[in-house]
Amino acid sequence: MTTAVLLFAVGLMLSAFFSGSETGFYRVARVRLLIEAMEGSWISKMLLWATNNPAAFVATALVGNNVANYVVSCATVLLAKLLLPDGGPATEMAFTIALTPVVFIYGELLPKNLFFAAPNRLLRRCAPGLAVAGTLFSPVSAALWVVGYVLQKVARVPSQALRMELARRELAEVLDEGHAVGLLSPAQRRLAQGTFAAAGRSIREFMIPAGRLAQVDLGVSRRELLQFARRRQQTFVILRNGQGYVRVLDCLLDPDNPQLPIRDLLSTPIKRNFLTTLLNMQAANREVAAVKGEQGRIVGYVFAEHLKLALVESPVR
Q1: Contacts of 107 (CB under 8 A, 6+ apart)
Q2: For residue 147, is pLDDT > 70?
Q3: For position 33, what pLDDT does the model report?
Q4: Are both 209 and 295 inside the same structural domain?
């Protein structure tokens, strides 16, 4: 009887350990782990490695949960046979049903709630046990990792995209926490979220096609250019064939100069992303950039003010 009770307690603790640590793994702040790892914490380094290799941790937790369930089942059957030797399968089934709420509450629900509330602290305390479990279960975990890798290739699941999505959500939580404690103003928080939401998007999504943008010839006079800009309510006028652009403000500030204050266009490939394009335009002090296709031909234009506006309007996905 003592052996059966101890076996049940061990299985229950294993279930709580692996179920709780799995919840903590998905809740832990990776930014905090990175900072602590840079300070020399070997536990944080180990956990940071696990977050960068989630398949290994998930396989270990899966094997651990199965071992815990097997131990609990064996203990339940042993208890049923010891208490009611002549009960048979019906008694074993009744004992299993009777102990299910205990296993669910103390082996699943309670530890998950605890790790959900304090993931960093509890996961750090469980790190040595997870390292031992990872070593003991490594043969089975490796086999599960291979199966998962094959399924990923067959299903063509973009694992990098999934990791980026998790990182984006985690960053959003960090920004929310910073706003909650007063480190970020609403405007700063929205700007940061908009930056990360739009950073990887293609510049194609923000460009105006060349055929839809009104342009003027190089030999146009200053007066004609101002009239053209006034009719279309434009602050910049693009010259045809990518010969540059003119700021209306420059023309108004120097009305006596007969020559147009033409500025060179910055060119950017159509495959370049949003953030790189905006940074290049800021570095070159250019308000307009010509977007070139694969053949080197101008296919559209992007304006710095439109890109900046997208930073505060981009939804956080």
Answers
A1: 11, 12, 15, 16, 19, 68, 72
A2: yes
A3: 78
A4: yes
DSSP letter assigned to residue 259: S
Helices (H) and strands (E) in the chain, counts: 14, 8
Strands (E), the chain: 208-209, 215-216, 236-239, 245-247, 262-263, 266-269, 288-292, 298-303
Q: What is the pLDDT of residue 316?
A: 45
Question: Is there a single domain that holds both residue 162 and residue 147?
Answer: no
State whether residue 301 is helix, strand or coil.
Answer: strand
Q: Supply φ then ψ for residue 269, to 5 degrees.
A: -70, 150
CA angle 26, 30, 35 (to 5 degrees): 155
DSSP summary character for residue 178: H
So what's the pLDDT on residue 172?
A: 60
**Can you spell out the DSSP letters for 112-161?**
HHHHHHSHHHHHHHHHHHHHHHHHHTHHHHHHHHHHHHHHHHHHT--HHH
pLDDT digits (tens, 9 = 90+) for 241-257: 777 888 888 788 777 77
The whole-angstrom separation of Cα 235 and Cα 81 is 87
Read off the pLDDT of each residue in 174-190 and give the average, rounded to a whole number. 58
By CB atoms closer than 10 A (0-12, 13-18, 19+), residue 223 is exposed
Which residue range is the domain that position 294 belongs to? 203-313
Q: Which residue's entry shows tokens 């299993």?
A: 96
pLDDT in tens, 98-129: 888 888 999 899 999 999 888 888 988 898 89
Total of domains in the chain: 3
C-beta of residue 267 within 8 angstroms of C-beta of residue 249: no
